[in-house]
Amino acid sequence: MKKTILTGLRPTGNLHLGHYFGACQNYLKLQDDYEFYLEIADVQALTDNFNNPEKVRVNVYEITKDLLAIGLDPNKVNFFIQSKIPEIAELTVYYGNLVTVARLQRNPTVKNEIAQKKELFGNSGESITYGFLGYPVSQAADITAFKGELVPVGEDQLPLIEQCREIVRKFNSIYGETLLEPVPYLSENKRIKGLDGNEKMGKSLGNAIYLVDDEDTIKKKVMGALTDKNKIKKDDPANPDVCMVHYYHKLINSYENTKIVEEECRKGCRGCVQCKKELIVAMNNFLKPIQDRRKKYEENPELVEEILNSGTKKAQEKAKNVMNDVKKAMKIDY
Ligand code: ATP
Ligand code: MG
Q: Which of 143, 203, 204, 248 gets mutated to test ligand 1 (max ligand atoms within 8 A of its CB)?
């Protein structure tokens, strides 16, 4: 029998290169060999976008189109909408008893995101909602509702998987062996940096290159990228290891081209403007087939609707079965 994968994305914006190289490339690699559930996490997106439901709704469709555009096959991957699986909400309530508030507050991912929000919006600690603090519990419900065994994610998500494993162990020790402990699956590029030099490219960080970005937008973003600050003149030798343009050449350009970039940069016979121009070309070449594939779904939105409906139906069946096991174990199978 095939093992099960559960993973998800928050529909709060389009897919960016951090998603692609940090997580989605693995979805592509794994889609043939697993029973694959891909959650469009609208409920989780609402935890910090509850006052902007339109944004979440629009992005459910946007992100599904992006995922299809990168080459995920809807015959192999069950795309589903989180809010259509009430079992997830049900499990979240039961798991709420198995985790302390202190443990949630100590979760490094949650801590990081709270710090990031404070920096962006100057929020005081009091404005963190119960729902937001509890989203790792709901994420544990996402994974276990499908008995997910493997979870392809970026590095920033590891503490959330660890929290899920703790909840599973606690559940099983109290109610008997019922749930599976999931294992994270990381990509070679665990964390994709931003063009601004930030350790992470992220939607909320405002430093993302989106798969839907057009040529003008790519040009603007790449031209503003962080390079070696010590390089003042065009022919100063520089250090490619601290340059984000080189970092993205490595990700996107061919091995041979990247070698040339590196050598010329070190020798001081390559200007940053030229180097950025070459990256723009490579980036557009990389994005072109993705954007071409996306067109089919833009022109036929009913296809996207069908894919979401049929994936959601499969997910509903699976979650129902798992919920029956959980209720039996908890002696609430009236
Ligand atoms: P937000 O800022 O709204 O949290 P995000 O850009 O972090 O958005 P998510 O939807 O939270 O994106 O993440 C979806 C998946 O993509 C997760 O598995 C996450 O680890 C991965 N991911 C996102 N950004 C990166 C990145 N820069 N490098 C590696 N993986 C990433
Ligand atoms: Mg995130």
A: 203
Please indicate, yes or no, whether the overall pTM of this predicted structure exceeds 0.85: yes
Ligand 1 pocket check for 23: Cβ under 6 Å? yes
Which strands make up the sheet holding 35-40, listed edge to edge? 77-81, 35-40, 4-9, 150-152, 183-185
Q: How far apart are CA 10 and CA 139, in angstroms?
A: 11
Q: Helix (H, G, I), strand (E, B), or coil: what is residue 146?
A: coil
For residue 322, name the pLDDT band (cuts at 50, 70, 90): very high
pLDDT grade, residue 330 (50/70/90)? very high
Phi, psi at 77, each rounded to 5°: -110, 130
179 φψ region: left (φ > 0), alpha (ψ -120 to 50), beta (else): beta
Quick check: 122 and 71 in contact, CB under 8 A?
no
User: How distant, in Å, are the alpha carbons of 215, 237, 250, 259 from that of 255?
Assistant: 23, 21, 7, 6
Q: Which ligand is nearest to the CA of 120?
A: 1
Q: Which band of pLDDT confidence, cut at 50, 70 and 90, is reported for residue 123?
A: low
Side chain identity, residue 124:
S
The per-residue pLDDT for range 128-184, each reduced to its tens digit, is 889 889 999 999 999 999 999 999 998 989 999 999 999 999 999 999 999 999 999
Ligand 1 pocket test, pick from 10, 67, 150, 204 with the greatest ligand atom count within 8 Å of Cβ, gives 10
157 lines ligand 1 (CB under 6 A): yes
Q: In the chain, pLDDT over 70 holds for what percent of residues?
A: 99
CA–chain centroid gap for 230, Å, is: 34
The pLDDT of residue 125 is 56
Instruction: List Cβ neighbours of 101 (8 Å cut-off, separation of 6 or more).
Output: 133
H helix or E strand, kind and range, residue 53: helix 53-69
- For 136, the 3-state DSSP assignment is helix
